User: Fold these one by one.
Assistant:
Number 1:
Amino acid sequence: MKALFIGGTGTISTAISALCVKQGWELYLLNRGNRSEFVPEGAHVITADINDTDGVLEKLGDMTFDVVADFIAFTTDHVKRDIALFAGRCAQYFFISSASAYQKPLASPVITESTPLANPYWEYSRNKIACELKLMKAYRKQGFPVTIIRPSHTYGDTAVPMGVHGKNGSFSVVERIRQSKPVIIHGDGTSLWTMTHNTDFAKAFCGLMGNLHAIGEAYHITSDESLTWDQIYGAIAAVLGVELHPVHIATDLLAACSDEYLGGLTGDKANTVIFDNTKIKRAVPGFTATVRFDQGVRRTLQYIYSHPECQKPDPEFDAWTDEILEWYGRIAEKLPARPE
């Protein structure tokens, strides 16, 4: 069985690539070659820019694949390009959508694949929805063999998943926790969230590869473990061996500070989500997520602190955090006392 991954070295796809090779797939990774350290032994690399259609066609020649998966398609132009490139060249095409595409605000916190797709807060999610619609139209009209995957918050070795962080990722927040500095948690910290380790995600994804029952279908792949944001940050602090000092700030207030928080929080992480994984478990018998968050994040933190390249400071975000906390503290001090 032969597979082509576009990307293949990101947080989600690294684990999938490693498992595919282990399972005996003949795996090709088409990317720019910028993350070669994450290419598993045995995989073949095709160095190319997927947006250079002529160059890609030249390098692929007359190759065909049982599976093509695009991990870096975000807009309808991307999937339009892929339909033109891979129609008739693959037996199954995977589009990586997002669970953030599900209805916001949610009518029910329990999400199935039939939950409506609508996110007025986040352009990223709306683009994913538009991609899904275009691909399903191609499936219905021309038999394009699409399978849609909707990941939620999936993490691996190289970054700790967080709710509120800056443009350089979460390391500066981890450092604040390690140094016993206060950190911002959106809302009151009690909404439920789902973290999925990439090795668990890979098991379900690989179980869908070459699965004829998955053509024309959409699946989300997540852990069954639900945690509050206080528990998530608390688990990180526990691994670091320190006490957590959280400051809870309303999501609406944070969203007013940045469009990034409007999308990433109001349109995603501020919502309580509980995923019903019945459909993926039916399609991949025996699948279950086995990495608890406290176990997975321990592995992540060990990796980050042993790999300096993962330790990306973010002084701008750190200064903003201090400014917001100082401002918030002044406001709290001026709140009127409760009447006796």
Number 2:
Amino acid sequence: MRAAVFDSHGPAHEVLRVEEIDRPEPGPGEVRVRIAASGVNPTDWKARSGATPRPIGDFQIPNQDGAGVIDALGAGVDPSREGQRVWVWLAAAGRPWGTAAEWCVVPADQAVPLPDGISFELGASLGVPAMTAHRCLFADGPLDGRNVLVAGGAGAVGHFAIELAKHAGARVATTVSGPEKAELAARAGADLVVNYKESGAVEQIRSFAPLDRIVELALGANLELDLAVSGPQTHIVDYAAEAKDPVLPVRALMSANVTLRFVLLYGVPRPALLQAAADITQALADGALTELPTTTFPLEKVAAAHDAVQSGAIGKVLVVP
């Protein structure tokens, strides 16, 4: 099969190459998926570049997320799953078979049935962003009737955080940095969209409601705003690391009585990941999740796809084998 591979860390155009390798066969409890689309996330370029290095065996196929059709089953897998349309999550976590290839092998429960009418493009966009959003939203309890602030509502995690929170019965405010991103966040269903660069942002959020959750992607940069709109019921949940670790204003945090939580998907307990996958699939079936603007690259241009995500491309970047 044709696959993107790397065997050392470094810049995309230096270490990524597309070549023919042996097509994998599923082992016990595994399925093989014919990949229709592969999603690219920041975690993918960071792992490949060495910014957050992970061990490499003889080779590594990049990209955690994807969608396609199951075409082979390992021992112990329900025979009815052959031919099933699926979305795939954390394919390359501790395994060489990422989704930037014509085929991928994953544990059967990491290939989740894709509801009828849901495109492969949307399926390949889920995985890391939607499951991260789910953990940030629900790790501290249900959301029905609660109030949520999503920082960066136009990004992939922010987009699915807005939609999953709305699906769960929450009211959602979000912050963005400009008109184009404001339009994307409003389209996702946010009840309030605030440009955090404009004066009066804190007052707008305060007038929205007492906040129960803040889904945060830049704790250091946004903590002053977060604290200004937080209270004893607020959980601030951060899912991204900045270049420089923030200095926490302990007294201000104590005075606000907030709870800080940090989320990295690779360390989330497996039962919580499986629940996230189930809840995301139900939201898909209910029509609650939508596609972001998509930029698609052929497999031969996988390095350009990684560079696009690293450069902060708006929307979702996909690779099509």
Number 3:
Amino acid sequence: MSAAELPQPPRMASRGGDRGRRAPRQRVLSREAIIDAALAIIDAEGLDALTMRTVAAVLGTGAASLYAYVDSKEELIELVVERVIGEVRIADQPDPSRWMAQLKEMAREMRRVFASHGDLARATFGRIPLGENALNGAEGMLAVMRAGGLPDRVAAWVLDLLSLYVMGVAYEDSLTAMNATRPDELAGFMTAMRTYFASLPSERFPNTVALAEELTAGDSEERFEFGLEVLIRGLIAVSADI
């Protein structure tokens, strides 16, 4: 059976309609005001809507005037990411007796914060945040892992691995939110996916057909927690070999 003869996969409904932008109003320009405006655009319309012109329109000025405060759109995105990282609550004191729980709590908090700001999580891919808020967050996570007795290399490398996992999930969360996908629609899509997997030719996809139920089981929270558990247990297993 060729690819053309396979059953049609289901598609998620998309309703990313026209989102209205606030009427521009004149504000006193500053770097903080520019970051505020940029974040408001991302929250309302998503990262793709962010340009120097759209920020200037929110502020009631021209795009050229923004360059006295930020060098480029790239720098502005970095500043917005840094601002949002500052919203993430970090454990006050590392507790060696519950370091795993603390690490999970920080991961959940990172997901919550970034998923609440449009698809900003996408802006973290391929970037290494180095602002004060990012350094504070990294310091807090490293302190928790070292308090738990993890080898230094494991703690250092997991900082990046855990962030990639959390930001990937937060980005997926944002797509669901920005498309205004209702829980019943998502459930219906997963049912359609299950039916699709089960309908595939079993001689070509025996494992996919056999696991059609499990491949579509669990909601986003269960899957996120499963991923965290795999990562944490993996840390312990890898640490024993180093």
